[in-house]
Design a protein that fits this description.
- This protein has 18 helices and eight strands.
- It is α+β, with helices and mostly antiparallel strands.
- The strands form two sheets. It has a five-stranded antiparallel sheet.
- Helix 8 crosses helix 12 and helix 11 crosses helix 12.
- It is globular.
């Protein structure tokens, strides 16, 4: 009996002494972080700051966009993910609320916004719109510790090299005393501050707009708005140019032309039957523009200028650009889009990925397989619909997916249907 008890005790001690897989992984994480000291030192981070801020630092394996064993490459959760449609993203009630608040803030920060417009050529309403979209004018607090996020992404993310630099620069932000660790909050992707900058963007585009000798995008509204304007200006913002013009497309317009590569002057688009909702001056008609149809032939159409794509560099999402661009306009003009959004649905991410793969095999699509129904995907869908004899609406519907499946299996193509 005594020997059995001793054996049991030995087994229990061995179990306690043996690290669990998660513990072993965390030890590897700690080793990885420690290995970054030479890079941090080269960037000017003090040893004291490095030791203080990395002591006890642990990875957050619940973050999206991680490349972990047993998880999808996208880092998505196990729940079905849907591609958001414009009507649910550019929601009228939200736009109206933020526009009303933006009008109040235009008056409160009138002097700062005037300085921003004179210095960077970016409308004050545009940076207010970015602030409203990113953090609800500062009411939204990011849920994550910024240093932990960029450290985890550097160790286990799909973009390790990018986040390795972001981690070093996050340490530099803390070392310079720009923000206290408790206030250094971020999104799951590491964006921080009132207008959501990555650490690298803070150093590239941060500006001291309130004149206190420091760049504080976490507490200073002038610094946050000025930095957002400088980022847009640094990326090519053209002063005095609208971000986009809403137009009514002519019947039978070719939706496959709605890609950035197809550019014509606004006047040429107008002569082709695209009618602006509001008056366009003769000077504006000479500006080059691309056609944007976020819901294919359904919903509003836009002629997008260079500034549209500058905003897109701030956040690489057409819906994001539509949101902030329209919100900026609504602070001056209360009119919503002239053409309402369709009550459309979109396919699940995995279905859009399958569609993109098939379009790639057919030579109609050459961009990323990411499950997002962006401009190039919609145009490729339209090209497929042309080749398959379907109704050409440039919308990734279930009918198109079924047609592709039937074509691959030798079955007859299913008829295209309008999204419901």
């Amino acid at each position: 009996m005594r020997s059995c008890r001793l054996l049991l005790l030995a087994l229990l001690l061995a179990a306690v002494a043996s690290p669990a897989p998660a513990q072993a992984a965390d030890a590897a994480f700690s080793q990885f972080i420690a290995s970054l000291w030479p890079e941090a030192q080269a960037a000017g981070v003090s040893r004291a700051t490095f030791d203080r801020e990395t002591r006890g630092l642990e990875p957050d394996y619940k973050l999206p966009d991680l490349a972990l064993p047993g998880r999808p490459a996208s880092g998505a959760s196990g729940q079905a993910e849907f591609v958001q449609v414009p009507a649910s993203y550019v929601k009228e009630a939200t736009i109206a609320r933020l526009a009303t608040e933006g009008q109040r803030l235009m008056q409160k920060h009138r002097d700062t916004l005037g300085q921003i417009e004179r210095r960077f050529g970016v409308p004050g309403t545009m940076v207010l719109a970015i602030w409203g979209r990113e953090t609800d004018y500062g009411r939204y607090t990011n849920p994550y510790d910024a240093l932990r996020v960029v450290a985890t992404q550097a160790y286990a993310g799909r973009r390790k090299e990018q986040y390795r630099e972001e981690f070093i620069l996050a340490l530099k932000i803390l070392d310079e005393g720009a923000v206290e660790r408790r206030d250094f909050r971020a999104s799951w992707a590491g964006a921080t501050g009132l207008t959501q900058f990555l650490p690298s963007e803070y150093f590239k585009h941060g500006v001291d707009m309130d004149g206190d000798g420091r760049v504080d995008i976490w507490h200073s509204v002038p610094d946050a708005l000025g930095s957002a304007a400088k980022q847009l200006a640094d990326k090519g913002w053209q002063g005095g140019l609208n971000w986009a013009y809403e137009v009514r497309a002519p019947a039978g317009a070719d939706c496959t032309l709605a890609v950035p590569e197809v550019q014509k002057s606004i006047g040429e688009w107008m002569r082709a039957g695209f009618t602006p909702v509001e008056r366009v001056s003769f000077a504006e008609q000479g500006q080059p523009a691309s056609l944007l149809q976020p819901e294919g032939i359904y919903g509003p159409s836009f002629l997008t200028t260079k500034n549209y794509f500058v905003i897109k560099q701030y956040n690489f999402s057409d819906l994001y650009v539509l949101f902030v661009g329209h919100l900026s306009d609504r602070m001056v003009d209360p009119a919503p889009f002239a053409t309402p959004w369709s009550a459309s649905t979109q396919l699940r991410t995995k279905s859009v990925e399958a569609m993109q793969r098939q379009l790639t095999r057919l030579g109609l699509y050459g961009d990323k397989i990411d499950g997002k129904a962006g401009m190039l995907t919609r145009s490729a869908v339209g090209a497929y619909q042309k080749s398959a004899g379907l109704k050409v609406d440039c919308w990734p519907s279930e009918a198109v997916l079924q047609s592709m499946g039937g074509a691959m299996g030798g079955a007859a193509a299913a008829p295209a249907q309008r999204p419901k």
